[in-house]
Amino acid sequence: MELTGRARRGAFVLLATPLVLATGWRVARLEVALPFGELIAALRARRASPLPAWLADPAGLAETVEKLLGILPPRRCGLCLRRALLLLELWSRCGLEPKLHLGFRLQAPDRDGHAWLTATTARGEPLQVSGPQDYAPAFEL
């Protein structure tokens, strides 16, 4: 029996949920133990532990993270940074080389920051999660 696109995405989210939860807990443990630069390096180093081909779907993993984002650790991080850190590790394990972007909005009273992730697939297709919105890009890690 062939699954429809919606059923296929739902099945992927269901099967990817344990991986995403485990990644959240791993990121939370590292986030309190490592300086930020070392945290980013540790998440990228997970590229050495590739995901099985059926699970190495960057768009599907992004959808799964988005659906679970409200309950995922690390809770000390805002939603955008939490999303970016989780996907930094997961996309690295997909064989991608994701870039973490940090931007800021400096006009009062909205002085705050935002994080987003970009990558390019092996076929040269751009991937982006969240995006800069109205934040001025400041750092690319």
Shape: globular
Instruction: Please tell me how large the radius of gyration is.
Output: 15 Å
Query: How do the SSEs run, as a string of H and E?
Result: HHHHEEEE
> Helical stretch count?
4
The total beta strand count reads 4
Structural class: alpha+beta
Give the strand line-up of the largest sheet.
3-2-1-4
Q: N- to C-terminal separation?
A: 44 Å
Indicate the low-confidence ranges by residue numbers: none
Give the arrangement of secondary structure elements.
Blueprint: H1 5-33, H2 36-45, H3 58-68, H4 79-93, E1 99-105, E2 112-120, E3 126-129, E4 136-140
Antiparallel strand pairs: 1-2, 1-4, 2-3
Helix pairs in contact: 1-2, 1-3, 1-4, 2-4, 3-4
Question: What does this 3D model show about the protein?
Answer:
- By secondary structure, the protein is of the alpha+beta class.
- The chain has one domain.
- Helix content is 46%, strand content 18%.
- It has 4 helices and 4 strands.
- A 4-stranded antiparallel beta sheet has the order 3-2-1-4.
- A hairpin with a 5-residue loop joins strand 2 and strand 3.
- Helix 1 packs across helix 3 and helix 1 crosses helix 4.
- The longest helix has 29 residues.
- It is globular, with a radius of gyration of 15 Å.
- The N and C termini lie far apart (44 Å).
- The mean pLDDT is 92.
